[in-house]
Amino acid sequence: MPWKPVAASVTIAGLLVSMMPAAASAQPAVLKGQEAFGDWRRDKPGTLRLITPQDLPKPGATPSSANMSRVAPRTASAIPQVPPGFKADLFADGLNGPRIIKTAPNGDIFVAETRAGRIRLLRAADGATKPTINEVYATGLDRPFGIAFFPSGDNPQWLYVANTGSVVRFAYRNGDLKASGKPETVVAKLPHGWGHSTRDIVFTPDNKRMLVSVGSAGNSGEGMGTPPGGLEAWKRERPLGAAWGNETDRAAVLAFDPDGKNQRTFATGIRNCVGLAIQPQTGVPWCSTNERDGLGDNLVPDYVTRVRENAFYGWPWFYIGANQDPRHAGARPELKDKVTVPDVLLQAHSASLGLTFYDGQNFPAEYRGDIFAALHGSWNRSKRTGYKVIRIRLRDGVPTGEYEDFATGFVINDSEVWGRPVGVAVARDGALLITEDANGTIWRISR
Asked: Are the C-beta atoms of residues 406 and 372 closer than 8 Å to each other?
């Protein structure tokens, strides 16, 4: 049979394809529907998930479980599992419940040790896996969580801290190792008391507004009672979906002038917006939210979303769109079609906390602009979930709904964990820093 050039070229092309690395020829399958819910046993770096509103089970499809984890001491061999090509180094340990972590313009790293009521400062050379300076920057704070530098740019003048019941600020200059004086109170009274205690804080890119997240007092609007003056009067005077009673100005993102004046409501119906971040490309605020408990293993999904000004996200009457919470059956029907659906739904009860946008140069180019979020871990699920850091993929700055397990391995077995991720930040050298408050460590993820 004569030689056929076309057939030969096809054979050579096929040979070249077969020689390509598997990672270049195929992307991992995306887990969808029931497969996407999963539990900790299926978690591993690179696993992709997509949960949509259509995937949600009915309330009570599974019993509501109380499944608390036991924190075990971390052994020397316990380190986060990260994707191939990345490495995890123990950056700092011995901290007292490190939570939110932020990088100052000069590269210094500030960490809220919430239980201890203090802010810690760490300084490390670019590329270093250990800090050379480890100092307490400020003490005497009331469960501090959110940290922000103001104004934006290379030379901030203030370091703001969101306590559980107030916002304070310290006069700040790049390189300060300790607060130069006592804090100035900016917002004297945030709603606080029983219930969610974390408050995060960001500034809009024009430096004109300060946004503060305030979680709900209860799980699903318990104890709200009747609005003062009646529901109709309340609706006329308050933003769409605003709660009342012990939930007044809670389950919301509040806005202030940078000096703390002119309080108003930015968005409502967000049960517990633990983490806030500003998307660098768009200036849009994003929120990492803990949704409600008690409706079963896979309800209600936690979420990460853009926060639309004047939007209502459903709590406590609805969830993930027009789904009514059965504990409020028939209530507020006029709100049903006015609920903003969140952008990225996460496995329910994962306890999504801190988030950050990746803007460094250490990771591959496809990571730039994506979100990293820390999942503290479930208690209200029969099979444990969370206890990991995820990467939320954006396409041209817009969420696709997919997210990827990035750092896992914090769970030991069905009853024990050694780590509970809380905060994420990008170091000046492009490494990703992760806090976990179970054993008081900070991890540095790099290439």
From this structure: yes
